């Protein structure tokens, strides 16, 4: 009886995950437009009329008031660079502005500052629209100081209510061997609150995605790296993402920086797929109270049998939360996991299974 009830709960949970986007779309269609919520429209390509009208308005000197800003390397848009388009968004912006980035490889560093919320960065397909740079933590700035991991990011987002879709963020610095110093090379840093990425690619090797602070939702994205390629102290939900390892020996997926029991941060991976090369830890305890959970994930055979790392500090084994629930695949066996990781029950996993983990009901209408 108990086993049957457990199977019913698992089937029910899986069904909830599958229908969630449909239910959310229906909810958003009846909701009034509200800038404090992210909707599917914020992630979608603007209409041809809006784009053409915007270009015409720019020629008349009204570029700073545009709802759509077009980036095109051939000069047919408002800006030839992505940063140039971001610069056109007024400081203190209070309405959604879409930056449409036409196909091309944009070799530049980009920052969306904290003063410019409600920006959508929309590509024309993640394989066709690429923002790339090659900075590493050991690189020197103009004053002769190392830039550090934080400022190595090809794209840095510091504003709230940021969206991105159908675009690639890349750091093309050479791959770092295990143990290398100063070779961290961030493709994307997320430091704003209430951020959503949809069908984006985030490519790098060591420290690819700096999931720094804030609440973030990454849906159907591809994230590539080798060593701690998702790291930081944000509270983020990764749903339906592909995690692709390019490690040549050992590596790790997630490094949570959570340093106290009071911090409500951590990473939840739901319905994700792990592929690639090397031998990977599911997570490492960067912070003493690191929190990482995998649920309904398909884990390839590249997961090390013990699964998790205490970052060389055994005292952290008493305070971390490293959990797995209902995962599958050759890397999902928990038989040889470290004794301080957890095979979660449904009730224990439930807080991590959906948008409520990131308070999505307060800022998502999808």
UniProtKB/TrEMBL annotation:
Its EC number is 3.1.1.11. It comes from the Eukaryota. It is an enzyme of class 3 (hydrolase). GO terms for molecular function: pectinesterase activity. The active site is at residue 228. Residues 1-27 form the signal peptide. The keyword Transmembrane does not apply. GO terms for biological process: cell wall modification; pectin catabolic process. Gene3D superfamilies: Single-stranded right-handed beta-helix, Pectin lyase-like. Transmembrane segments: none annotated. It catalyses: [(1->4)-alpha-D-galacturonosyl methyl ester](n) + n H2O = [(1->4)-alpha-D-galacturonosyl](n) + n methanol + n H(+). It is found in: Secreted, Cell wall. Pathway: Glycan metabolism; pectin degradation; 2-dehydro-3-deoxy-D-gluconate from pectin: step 1/5. Keywords: Aspartyl esterase, Cell wall, Hydrolase, Secreted, Signal. Residues 69-360 form the Pectinesterase catalytic domain. Belongs to the pectinesterase family. PANTHER family: ACYL-COA THIOESTER HYDROLASE YBHC-RELATED, PECTINESTERASE QRT1. This is Pectinesterase. The gene is LOC103633411.
């Amino acid at each position: 009886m108990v086993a049957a009830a457990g199977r019913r709960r698992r089937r029910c949970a899986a069904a909830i995950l599958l229908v969630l986007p449909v239910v959310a779309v229906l909810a958003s269609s009846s909701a009034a437009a509200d800038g404090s919520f992210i909707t599917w429209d914020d992630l979608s390509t603007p209409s041809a009329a809006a784009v053409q009208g915007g270009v015409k308005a720019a020629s008349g000197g009204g570029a700073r008031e545009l709802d759509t800003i077009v980036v095109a390397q051939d000069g047919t848009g408002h800006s030839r660079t992505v940063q140039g388009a971001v610069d056109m968004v007024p400081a203190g912006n209070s309405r959604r502005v879409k930056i449409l980035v036409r196909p091309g490889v944009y070799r530049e560093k980009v920052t969306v500052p904290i003063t410019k919320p409600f920006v959508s960065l929309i590509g024309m397909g993640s394989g066709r629209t690429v923002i790339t740079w090659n900075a590493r933590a050991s690189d020197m700035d103009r004053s002769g100081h190392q830039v550090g991991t934080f400022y190595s990011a090809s794209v840095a987002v510091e504003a709230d209510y940021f969206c991105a879709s159908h675009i690639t963020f890349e750091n093309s610095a050479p791959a770092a061997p295990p143990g290398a110093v100063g070779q961290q090379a961030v493709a994307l840093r997320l430091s704003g609150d209430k951020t959503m990425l949809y069908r984006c690619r985030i490519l790098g090797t060591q420290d690819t995605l700096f999931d720094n602070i804030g609440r973030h939702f990454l849906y159907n994205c591809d994230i590539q790296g080798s060593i701690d390629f998702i790291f930081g102290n944000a509270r983020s939900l990764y749903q339906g993402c592909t995690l692709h390892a390019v490690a040549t020996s050992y590596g790790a997926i997630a490094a949570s920086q959570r340093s106290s029991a009071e911090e409500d941060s951590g990473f939840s991976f739901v319905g994700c797929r792990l592929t690639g090369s090397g031998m990977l830890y599911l997570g490492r305890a960067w912070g003493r109270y690191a929190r990482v959970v995998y649920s309904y994930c398909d884990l390839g055979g590249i997961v090390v049998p013990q699964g998790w790392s205490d970052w060389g500090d055994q005292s952290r084994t008493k305070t971390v939360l490293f959990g797995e629930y209902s995962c599958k695949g050759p890397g999902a066996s928990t038989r040889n996991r470290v004794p301080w990781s957890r095979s979660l029950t449904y009730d224990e996993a439930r807080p991590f299974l959906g948008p409520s983990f990131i308070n999505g009901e307060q800022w998502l209408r999808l």
